[in-house]
Automatic annotation (TrEMBL):
Matches recorded under InterPro entries: AAA+_ATPase, ABC_transporter-like_ATP-bd, ABC_transporter-like_CS, ABC_Transporter_VariousFunc, P-loop_NTPase
Entry keyword annotation includes Transport: yes
Database matches in PROSITE patterns: ABC_TRANSPORTER_1, ABC_TRANSPORTER_2
The organism's taxonomic lineage, starting at the top: Bacteria, Pseudomonadati, Pseudomonadota, Gammaproteobacteria, Pseudomonadales
Keyword Membrane: no
Record keywords, A-Z: ATP-binding, Nucleotide-binding, Transport
GO molecular function, one term: ATP hydrolysis activity
Domain ABC transporter residue range list: 4-228
Protein name per Swiss-Prot or TrEMBL: Cu-processing system ATP-binding protein
SUPFAM superfamilies per UniProt: P-loop containing nucleoside triphosphate hydrolases (SSF52540)
Length: 310
């Protein structure tokens, strides 16, 4: 059974359509990165899955049931973008309160607080917590009751690099135990190794979905080769031009080396030509990163999309 299945979902607020024909699934034991600029529709998508609103069009099922059904909601954990807690209560008291609301066992409260790195701070009032500590408490709250679907909105905001790495390790462990996880973010650097698939949302439309190799195929962006000449760089450039056999490539010279941008489908024939030429001493190959692919799909007008501050 899928964690959720969105089938051509659209959503309007008043007059504005903010999601258009979004089709997306999440399997158990999978981490999906949901990426998009400010106002792209990430939070709206999450709210629909949580059952806080009903879509204007399309079909939606969550954990095999209806979004918003309490029998479904009890298996969902959600960390909102901005977490706020009663400042006078301790982390332990707050989590125990949420455990009661969710019908989860209070026995797991100290264990969860330790898991998110708040073992030493669980009896301090949350008004003394830093932003990162509040974020960790929010994460512990989302993990109550061992959810089968976990949705995290900007979970790394406020976390230092060590805490961020801890968070990703924890998410992997949950994923390996079968939890389906959605990670919404505009912070792409560093996230690539921790997600199984990415979905890129722009102005309410899903532009691309898949694992990194599939996104690279969908983006069809050039591969960059850094070439070190065996002799002089001009001879290498001649070899590149002859090996490309009229296909378009971008060639730049610098520091006695050549940088060549080539279409993915031409890469192997270019490499074979270069190897046969004897003009090349060494090379490195750079595939587009998740960030490059994201920028490609968001488009040059990326800044124009970004309604709010980053
Ligand atoms: N309650 C609302 N009423 C009207 N419009 C709304 C409402 N909530 C969101 N919107 C609009 O819907 C669009 C999508 O917003 P959403 O919050 O889903 O984007 P987001 O991708 O989560 O953005 P961010 O990264 O800035 O949090 C935006 O244009 C936003 O202004």
């Amino acid at each position: 059974m899928n964690c959720f299945e969105l089938d051509t979902i659209s959503h309007r607020y008043d007059r504005e359509t903010v999601l258009q024909d979004v089709t997306l699934q999440l399997e158990p034991g999978e981490i999906l990165g949901l990426f998009g600029h400010n106002g792209a529709g990430k939070t709206t998508t999450i709210k629909l899955i949580l059952g806080l609103m009903t879509p204007s069009a399309g079909r939606l099922s969550v954990l095999g049931g209806e979004a918003g059904d309490p029998r479904v909601s009890q298996h969902i954990g959600y960390l909102p973008e901005n977490v706020m807690f009663y400042p006078q209560l301790t982390g332990r008291e707050i989590l125990a309160h949420f455990a009661r609301l969710k019908g989860a066992s209070p026995a797991q409260v100290p264990e969860l607080l330790s898991q998110v790195g708040l073992a030493d701070a669980m009896d301090a009032r949350t008004r003394t917590y830093s932003k990162g500590m509040r974020q960790r408490l929010g994460l512990a709250q989302a993990l109550l009751g061992k959810p089968r679907l976990l949705m995290l909105d900007e979970p790394t905001v406020g976390l230092d690099p060590v805490a961020t790495a801890d968070l990703y390790r924890l998410l992997r462990q949950l994923r390996d135990e079968g939890t389906g996880i959605v990670l919404c973010s505009h912070v792409l650097p560093g996230v690539e190794p921790y997600i199984d698939r990415a979905a890129i949302l722009t102005s309410g439309a899903l532009k691309a979905v898949g694992d990194l190799p599939s996104l690279r195929r969908q983006a069809d962006m050039p591969v960059t080769l850094d070439l070190t000449p065996a002799g002089d760089v001009e001879a290498l450039e001649t070899a590149v031009n002859s090996a490309t056999r009229g296909h378009e490539v971008v060639v730049r010279q610098g520091d006695g080396r050549l940088t060549v941008e080539v279409a993915p489908q031409q890469k192997m024939s270019l490499l074979q030509g270069l190897m046969a030429s004897g003009a090349i001493a060494d090379l490195s190959i750079h595939q587009p990163s998740l960030e490059d692919i994201y920028v490609h799909f968001i488009g040059d007008g990326g800044l124009a999309h970004r309604g709010g501050a980053q």
